[in-house]
Amino acid sequence: MPNKILVTGAAGKTGRAIIQALSDLDVSVRAFVRSEEQIPTLTSLGVDDVWVGDLLNPESIEQSLQGVRAIYHICPNVSPHEFKIGKLVINAALSAGVEHFVFHSVRHPQIERMPHHWQKMRVEEYLIESGLPFTILQPPAYMQNMLAHWDKITEQGVYPVPYSKDVRSCLIDLDDLAEVAAKILTELNHVGATYELVGEESLSQIEIAQILSKELNRTVEVQEISVDVWEVGARKAGLDGYQLDTLKKIFAYSNNFGFYGNSNVLTWLLERPVTSLAEFVQKQM
User: Fold this and answer.
1) Domain of residue 240, CATH code
2) Could you tell me the pTM of the whole model?
3) pLDDT tens across 170-209, in order?
4) Kind of pairing between the strands at 221-224 and 68-73
5) Residues 234, 132: Cα–Cα separation, whole Å
6) Distance of alpha carbon 229 from alpha carbon 232, whole angstroms
7) Which of 85, 89, 96, 133 yields a CA-CA distance of 20 to 30 A from 105?
8) Is residue 270 part of a domain?
9) Contact predicate 108/141, CB 8 Å
């Protein structure tokens, strides 16, 4: 009987975290990546089964699913092809007789004015109607996202955000998400569930800076940067037109409505308290 788990988008930070959590449980993993240059990243995590393929190629997906029991599907981040890729992977999993399809979605995918979220909702709908045994995970932004500015935070005391400092966010430690993903992939009682995974329930950017200040033992202040300034850096980082437009719409939505949630589901799944932002900062020191 197949016992391998396929993780798509395996070389990204989400994929790496989930693979590490599965490896800690001695689970056999096949990592799906888009280029051979990403293979060393996975082998460093102990993965000896790396599939190099194209998520827009049905044959490549079908071949990667041979001998696979379950799949954790992560689409490339902010992809304009999210729905197309989702359909291809779901169809291939259905043909291969995959026993459990776990979809990495996003918190509040039903918000149409955010294309990234709306595309994930369309994938959720297609997955639900496919007949596959499924679980859907809906995490918010990661605490790890602020590591992109960690030097600026720790050395200059500046926490930059491309929206109002009053915007309230809900966050999750990626390690908590990975622990839950591994649990869901290795237990049998999560089929049919859709889980909102919220850690810190509601923090303004000012409150985030206050926590950073306390834990780092230095003053950290929020710096509101214009979307135009953010876009210059984003283009240098390689983001394209669709990604830029989509992320700007997320920022605009945040300014109007913010994001907040409830940590009860994540606490229940972890069987322990969620990781707080303060604890996350402590782990970086």
Assistant:
1) 3.90.25.10
2) 0.96
3) 999 999 999 999 999 999 899 999 999 999 999 999 999 9
4) unpaired
5) 37
6) 5
7) 96
8) no
9) no
